[in-house]
Write the structure tokens for this entry.
Amino acid sequence: MKDRLSKWLIVGLTSLLLLHPARANDPNPAQKSMGLLRKTTLALLQEGNERFVCGALKHPNTDQSHRSLAALEGQEPFVTVLSCSDSRVPVELIFDRGVGEIFTVRVAGNVADTDEIATIEYGVGHLHTPVVIVMGHSRCGAVTAVVKDVELEGLLPQLVDNIKPAAELAKHEGGEESVVIANAIKANVWQSISDLLRRSAIVRTEIEAGGVNVIGAIYNLETGTVDWLGEHPDQKNILGTYKPEGKPVATIPDAVAPHGPAPGFQIPNAPVKKSPSVASAEHSENSEHSAHAH
């Protein structure tokens, strides 16, 4: 971790350390501090998203003095975010953060292929962001196209190749088309995290060392809320199939596809974590839909 941290992280981390001070007999006080830093990061993002949903944006750290300071001293983002390039998903606005605070990687379908993974490795290995978020979104056009088997031209088929396992998994789960698409969007978040963990020795090493957390999320275009999915449900197994130097353990079946989910993996149905404002926004949305239905 870098010696100097952005002031907003220092304030949050100090508060958490006062509430949960390290003890002399703690087995790993440094790891505990990193855990508190990750909690601070998520708290800042959750609070920012609540302001975005309520229309009370603060637009922190966007003034001239901050821009000049960031230009002279370099960037110090506290989170790396892989999201879709959809113009309706403005990452910095969604989390109400400023210049130099979020290291953003955007690509259609929030897929994790070579370029995206390499960029995330830069965020984790060089910028030392303690959290990586892979964020899908509702009504994703790329995922919808794959679920509906839309014929694509140019290089697009190579892009959505990463999405196909998630779409097939969602189709296998069954349901109405809208349900299948929603499940595919969620499964695609897990697929991207799986691709990242399987292909990046740098990220795996940082996770094992307690230096970074990789978590999934889904942004709702209508409500503006972010649902937090947590770590990949099969993360422990994925990490366990690789040696420290990044080579698969010999006992892993060769039949496992590069982009495919782990054997037996199903779309998790565990409830996502939602803030009070999220629940309120979704209640309002459901009420509106009910009114239109009648």
In short: The chain has twelve helices and five strands.
